[in-house]
């Protein structure tokens, strides 16, 4: 959809927000055209942390390139790795052991909760509340501890390899996850008391940053951003991968189309992820955690595309193979880039004070946008 | 908006703020729950699988398991590992390939664990050391096999 380019009138002001600004959660520059306090145009400038990850991946083998993708959307690095591994497995037609599938899904959902919790804290901090940030980090720490036990790292895990996972679960895994579920259920109610019901929070979120269902679709928004506008787009439901078709969970849809709906979608998604983990944690099948693969992976000639639902939306991995050990071309369809493109539409006509709140509800991770 | 609705809204707003303040009050009176670590004074307890750096395991006879097959060098995405091989004379008079130097560039390493997963003889593993800051960059290039060490017998 083409937007009319606004001509700068006399009395308009152009303000740069970023690239070094605490509210942009990274190096993103927003060039905002203002008339008084009203936003006329928001122009995101990208490329400050472009590291050419796609090009880097093309020079690495199919085992090696997966670790680079942790650096794209670092808050859901596990799910990025998962998407890439799925694409390689699709090309090689590897059948995964049941245990590997369950471990992958468990780790994905833990990552999703960790990512949403961090977003929740940062979102409240964008609106001026400082305490939730610490509370969110305190609870997220429990998840990073679980990750550290099993995967060996806290943020860029590189745990998923083509054919399964790198190592078996830590013996303490089940006990720690159960303790976390109990803790989360207690604390999440506190969260809602502290932030969700707060009248200042609600008045700053409701009827702000309206993104209608049609616009969300035409801008290519995915994930909680689009589901807050009532778009049915959960990849876990629409194109189930691994064992998601056997699990019971709801796709959260809110029809408010405003910032508050997008907030509610993410908060409710955390409960859904907890319910998925509860279904799986006592039913981890025994067996191998990794399928037997060749030492050197060679994808057959052709094109392969898989998609996964990260914490931010749909991540598409597209590999073109010429039959060699390295991919000929890799393209990532990252959720952050499409979600950011809707910011201009959402912010137009709004107030400058709400811009940060709107941007917060998009849940932007800048390395995911730039890649 | 009617006057009654206006007053109702004000009371509703005050109530929601008080509910939030209840949490603040709870943490004000229950400040004994300490979740931070006094890091430089107390060493943190790290997970056993924590990836800090690559090390080569040596036994008490100063023997390691590395055969110099360069599987780790090929598996590394960053060119962190360089293996220099030499030929050793066996007692039977045959020439046998062995490692001369296992060079490990810590400054290039991203701790992805791919080299450890690729090693067929479990010669290398990840260590928990994490305080890697040095004054000179050259100190980060390490030789992992100890001087005078040789391959364990029976490891091919």
Strand order of the largest sheet of chain B: 3-4-6
Principal-axis shape of chain A:
globular
Euclidean distance between termini CA atoms of chain B: 86 Å
Number of domains of chain A: 1
Q: Largest interface: which pair?
A: A-B, 31 and 27 residues
CATH topology of the largest domain in chain B: Alpha-Beta Plaits
Write down the domain tally of chain B.
Answer: 2
List the topology elements.
The complex is a heterodimer of chains A (371) and B (156).
Chain A (H helix, E strand, L loop, with lengths): L12 E5 L11 E7 L2 E8 L7 H6 L6 H4 L8 H16 L5 H29 L4 H21 L8 E2 L2 E2 L7 H24 L2 H7 L7 H6 L4 H5 L7 H4 L20 H23 L20 E8 L4 E8 L7 E5 L1 H7 L1 H5 L4 H11 L3 H5 L1
Antiparallel strand pairs in A: 1-2, 2-3, 4-5, 6-7, 7-8
Chain B lengths: L2 H27 L23 E4 L6 E2 L6 H5 L5 E9 L5 E11 L8 H5 L5 E4 L13 E3 L6 E2 L5
Parallel strand pairs in B: 2-7
Antiparallel strand pairs in B: 1-5, 3-4, 4-6
Description:
The complex is a heterodimer of chains A (371) and B (156). Chain A has helices at residues 53-58, 65-68, 77-92, 98-126, 131-151, 173-196, 199-205, 213-218, 223-227, 235-238, 259-281, 335-341, 343-347, 352-362, 366-370, and strands spanning 13-17, 29-35, 38-45, 160-161, 164-165, 302-309, 314-321, 329-333. Chain A is α+β, with helices and mostly antiparallel strands and 371 residues long. Chain A has one domain: Orthogonal Bundle (Cytochrome-c3 Hydrogenase, chain B), CATH 1.10.645. In chain A, helix 4 runs antiparallel to helix 14 and helix 5 (131-151) packs antiparallel against helix 6 (173-196). With 156 residues, chain B is α+β, with helices and mostly antiparallel strands. Helix content of chain B is 24%, strand content 22%. Chain B has three helices and seven strands, in the order H-E-E-H-E-E-H-E-E-E. Chain B has helices at 3-29, 71-75, 114-118; strands at 53-56, 63-64, 81-89, 95-105, 124-127, 141-143, 150-151. The longest helix of chain B is centred in the first third of the chain and has 27 residues, at 3-29. At the A-B interface, helix 2, helix 5, helix 6 and helix 7 of A face helix 1 of B.
């Amino acid at each position: 959809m083409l937007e009319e380019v606004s001509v700068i009138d006399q009395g308009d002001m152009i303000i740069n927000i970023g690239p070094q600004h605490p509210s942009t959660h990274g190096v993103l520059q927003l060039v905002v055209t203002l008339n008084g306090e009203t936003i006329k145009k928001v122009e995101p400038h990208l490329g400050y942390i472009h590291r050419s990850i796609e090009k880097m991946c093309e020079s690495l083998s199919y085992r090696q390139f997966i670790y680079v993708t942790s650096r794209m959307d670092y808050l859901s690095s596990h799910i990025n790795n998962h998407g890439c591994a799925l694409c390689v497995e699709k090309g090689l037609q590897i059948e995964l052991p049941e245990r590997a599938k369950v471990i992958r899904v468990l780790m994905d959902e833990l990552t999703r909760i960790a990512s949403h919790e961090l977003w929740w804290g940062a979102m409240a901090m964008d609106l001026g509340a400082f305490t939730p940030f610490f509370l969110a980090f305190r609870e997220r720490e429990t998840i990073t501890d679980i990750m550290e036990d099993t995967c060996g790292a806290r943020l860029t895990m590189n745990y998923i390899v083509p054919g399964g996972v790198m190592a078996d679960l830590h013996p303490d895994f089940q006990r720690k996850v159960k303790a976390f579920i109990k803790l989360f259920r207690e604390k999440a109610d506190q969260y809602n008391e502290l932030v969700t019901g707060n009248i200042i929070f609600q008045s700053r979120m409701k009827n702000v940053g309206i993104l209608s269902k049609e616009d969300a679709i035409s801008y290519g928004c995915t994930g909680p951003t689009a589901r807050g506008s009532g778009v049915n787009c959960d990849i876990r439901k629409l194109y189930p991968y691994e064992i998601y078709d056997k699990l019971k969970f709801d796709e959260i849809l809110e029809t408010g189309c405003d910032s508050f709906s997008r907030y509610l979608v993410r908060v409710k998604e955390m409960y859904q992820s907890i319910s998925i983990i509860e279904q799986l944690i006592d039913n981890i099948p025994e067996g191998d955690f990794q399928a037997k693969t060749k030492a050197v992976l060679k994808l057959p000639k052709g094109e392969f595309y898989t998609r996964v639902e990260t914490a931010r939306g749909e991540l598409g991995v597209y590999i073109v193979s010429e039959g060699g050990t390295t991919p000929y071309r890799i393209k990532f369809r990252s959720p952050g880039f499409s979600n950011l493109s809707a910011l201009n539409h959402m912010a137009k006509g709004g107030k400058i004070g709400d811009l940060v709140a709107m941007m917060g509800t998009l849940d932007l991770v800048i390395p995911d946008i730039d890649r | 908006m009617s006057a009654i609705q206006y007053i109702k809204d004000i009371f509703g707003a005050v109530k929601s703020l008080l509910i939030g303040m209840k949490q603040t009050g709870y943490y004000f009176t229950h400040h004994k729950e300490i979740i931070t670590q006094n890091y430089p004074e107390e060493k943190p307890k790290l997970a056993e699988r924590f990836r800090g750096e690559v090390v080569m395991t040596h036994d008490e006879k100063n023997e390691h398991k590395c055969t110099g097959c360069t599987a780790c060098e090929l598996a590394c995405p960053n060119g962190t590992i360089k293996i220099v091989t030499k030929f050793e004379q066996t007692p039977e008079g045959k020439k046998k390939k062995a490692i001369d130097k296992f060079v490990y560039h810590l400054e290039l390493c991203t701790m992805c664990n791919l080299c450890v997963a690729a090693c067929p003889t479990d010669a290398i593993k990840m260590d928990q050391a994490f305080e890697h800051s040095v004054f000179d960059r050259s100190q980060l290039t390490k030789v992992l096999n100890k001087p005078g060490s040789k391959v364990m017998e029976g490891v091919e």
